[in-house]
TrEMBL record:
Co-factor requirement: Ca(2+)
GO cellular component: cytoplasm; extracellular region
Name of the protein in question: Coagulation factor XIII A chain
Enzyme class: transferase
GO biological process, one term: blood coagulation, fibrin clot formation
Length: 732
């Protein structure tokens, strides 16, 4: 069946690596055993004239396999489930004397034992879990087959052949691209490793092509829609190309553990020329700012066509593209957001914030960072490589943070294992455990070099973990799937289990915190609108009969959402005298002029308030972030909201700032409604409004969504969306 290559690789390997779905090697159309006697015409034997795959969107193959949404004219089926094929021969088929079989081939060096060459026998009854073809109808010269694939079959694009046996050898059909068949993972099949029982969850986590990603701050949660577009033209091929680019062996592509791990490496470009270049420095020359993307379609199609990494992405872009990859191949997946996510470089469950003696943060010693939020993915699958009970949702993260087995990737890590502290199980569970369970430790550095632990905050990290709810755009709290509630016995037990399995914790923060101060401090940040002044209100509470004097320091910083500070824009000190058993409030005004010139694209401001009780030497420290409220894009439509009818989309944006916006790009996207498109405006003057109209013709009915984004030199993360109900075309 497979050609014998000249190279033998030193005797260790007879066949070169079969790691490309795109590369082909056609089997011979005739495999004869010796010479054919004179006068024998092989055309007299059973001969294939036509193959019908029933591959139209309305055919039962695509409807039954839930692949009718793919904008692809090839047959797309899911493994472990039967589908129909009709073969037209040159004469009526006689099962007593005629022998034929269907063959599926993938890659350049197909081998039966690797699952890359699949001869499908014609059988009297289909057997569960095995390849087989059953004749269900014979009519004149046509034979209709019910073909069932194995639920462990390789996922990819197969070439199909019909082989007919004669006394003199095999006659095989020629290569025909029209019979190419995509086989995907099957969450509807109980024997598939990605089987998901709940139909509403399958609808959401496999078939929904529009999602909601949560970002912002835990006290000011923002949402933005994302077009996954897994069914759009060319996206399935782009996802298969990603695995080819990773040189992933075809024999491993039926295993969702391996596929998701390779995907987590390939979505970022570090070390493997993957899909997206990450950039967190606010400089996006020669590329698209991460906040400008409205979905995955443009990114994946550009990657495949240019064969170069696309610029630029940050965590929610990596997560959005990875979700498209997983859902497109049939693996149930969702994007999750962890608020106050620890980037703990050495996974020691401790985020050390070093303070000077006067209460200021020592930025040289403070290496760990707390991300305001971090997005990753969860993929649903069994884990036969782990003990029973650790299947289900697996955390997978494609944002390039730490090296795993020599590559920037993370997971799949069992969420159940993370919750119970079983971080010994692969892959990368200690890193994910630290992201949601680290302690925030405030340490004062004395002039003599000694360190004193001032306070430990065990509840700050992993404050809230959320995902989009099933069947709606609301938020679902899934924190309890990752961790037990603080203070519960189970929570301590999970931590002890993680420590037992080798997670480091250098400073014993249990019971070594200084005695609690008689003074409490907290502060609130007023809801802040971009371009407007706002206030901080700091409250001091004296719980003792003594009078205290306090020296306080407020530091306001422009920060990346990763918690890294770019610029200190506000510095203010003040003294407060606290009478016995009393409280006092202090207001600090933050002017727009102080922060506007320095803003980063997510408009996140971080405030750090430290105070020293002069009479006792106690240090009080609190930190909070706020995300400025940013104006929205307005989307309107007019015309019939119906498949095949023209609809006019109007995108409108008003500049609320007192400065002119330069180099403005507005992007518009809507799976099933309009192909991703964009328009540039050189400038938008203060309080001016720009409008842009596009005519589109919807091709998908049901609930749909238009998504728009705006980016400019000085203002980003501006979004707008519009929900639509598209009617079916009336039948004639």
């Amino acid at each position: 069946m497979s050609e014998t290559p000249r190279t033998t690789f030193g005797g260790r390997r007879a066949v070169p690596p079969n790691n490309s779905n795109a590369k082909e090697n056609d089997p011979p159309t005739m495999e004869l055993q010796g010479l054919v006697p004179r006068g024998v015409n092989l055309q007299d034997y059973l001969h294939v004239q036509n193959v019908n795959l029933f591959k139209e969107r309305w055919d039962s193959n695509k409807l039954d396999h839930h692949t009718d949404k793919y904008d692809n004219n090839k047959l797309i089926v899911r493994r472990g489930q039967s589908f129909y094929v009709q073969i037209d021969f040159n004469r009526p088929y006689n099962p007593r004397k005629d022998l034929f079989r269907v063959e599926y081939v993938i890659g350049r060096y197909p081998q039966k034992n690797k699952g890359t060459y699949i001869p499908v026998p014609v059988v009297s009854e289909l057997q569960s879990g095995k390849w087989g073809a059953k004749v269900i109808m014979r009519e004149d010269r046509s034979v209709r087959l019910s073909i069932q694939s194995s639920p462990e079959c390789i996922v990819g694009k197969f070439r199909m052949y019909i082989a007919v046996w004669t006394p003199y050898g095999i006659i095989r059909t020629s290569r025909d691209t029209e019979t190419d068949t995509y086989i995907l993972f099957n969450p509807w099949c109980e024997e598939d490793a990605v089987y998901l029982e709940d139909d509403r969850e399958r609808e959401e986590y496999v078939l929904n092509d529009i999602g909601v990603i949560f970002y912002g701050d835990v006290n000011n949660i923002k949402t933005r829609s994302w077009s996954y577009g897994q069914f759009e033209d060319g996206i399935l091929d782009a996802c298969l190309y990603m695995m080819d680019r990773a040189q992933m062996d075809l024999s491993g592509r039926g295993n969702p553990i391996k596929v998701s791990r390779v995907g987590s490496a390939m979505v970022n470009s570090k070390d493997d020329e993957g899909v997206l270049v990450g950039s967190w420095d606010n400089i996006y020359a020669y590329g698209v700012p991460p906040s400008a993307w409205t979905g995955s379609i443009d990114i994946l199609l550009e990657y495949q066509s240019s064969q170069n990494p696309v610029r630029y992405g940050q965590c929610w872009v990596f997560a959005g593209v990875f979700n498209t990859f997983l859902r497109c191949l049939g693996i149930p997946a969702r994007v999750v957001t962890n608020y106050f996510s620890a980037h703990d470089n050495d996974a020691n469950l401790q985020m050390d914030i070093f303070l000077e003696e006067d209460g200021n943060v020592n930025s040289k010693l403070t290496r760990d960072s707390v991300w305001n939020y971090h997005c990753w993915n969860e993929a649903w699958m069994t884990r036969p490589d782990l003990p029973v009970g650790f299947g289900g949702w697996q955390a997978v993260d494609s944002t390039p943070q730490e090296n795993s087995d020599g590559m920037y990737r993370c997971g799949p890590a069992s969420v159940q294992a993370i919750k119970h502290g079983h971080v010994c199980f692969q892959f990368d569970a200690p890193f994910v455990f630290a992201e949601v369970n680290s302690d925030l430790v405030y340490i004062t550095v004395k002039k003599d070099g000694t360190h004193i632990v001032e306070a430990v905050d065990t509840t700050h990290i992993g404050k809230l973990i959320v995902t989009k709810q099933v069947g709606g755009d609301g938020m679902k709290d899934i924190t309890d799937t990752y961790k037990f509630q603080e203070g519960q016995k189970e929570e301590r037990l999970a931590l002890e289990t993680a420590l037992m399995y080798g997670v480091k914790k250098p400073v014993n923060t249990e019971d070594i915190v200084k005695s609690r101060s008689n003074v409490d401090m907290d502060f609130e940040v007023e809801n802040a609108v971009l371009g407007k002044d706002f206030r901080l209100t700091i409250t001091f509470q004296n719980n003792s009969p003594s009078t205290y004097t306090i020296s306080a320091y407020v530091s306001g910083n422009i920060i990346f959402y990763t918690g890294v500070s770019k610029e200190e824009f506000k510095k203010e000190t003040f003294d407060v005298t606290l009478e016995p058993l009393s409280f006092k409030k202090k207001e600090v005004l933050v002017r727009a002029g102080e922060y506007m010139g320095q803003l980063l694209e997510q408009a996140t401001l971080h405030f750090f308030v430290t105070a020293r009780v002069n009479d006792t030497g106690d240090i009080l420290a609190k930190q909070k972030s706020t995300v400025l409220t940013i104006p929205k894009i307005i989307i309107k439509v007019r015309g019939a909201k119906m498949v095949g009818s023209d609809m006019v989309v109007t995108v409108e944006f008003t500049n609320p700032l007192s400065e002119t916006l330069q180099n403005v790009w507005i992007r518009l996207d809507g799976p099933g409604l309009i192909k991703p498109t964009r328009k540039m405006f050189r400038e938008i003057r203060p309080n001016s409004t720009v409008q842009w109209e596009e005519v589109c013709r919807p091709w998908v009915s049901g609930p749909r969504k238009l998504i728009a984004s705006m980016t400019s030199d000085s203002l980003r993360h501006v979004y707008g969306e519009l929900n639509l109900q598209i009617e079916r075309q009336p039948s004639v």
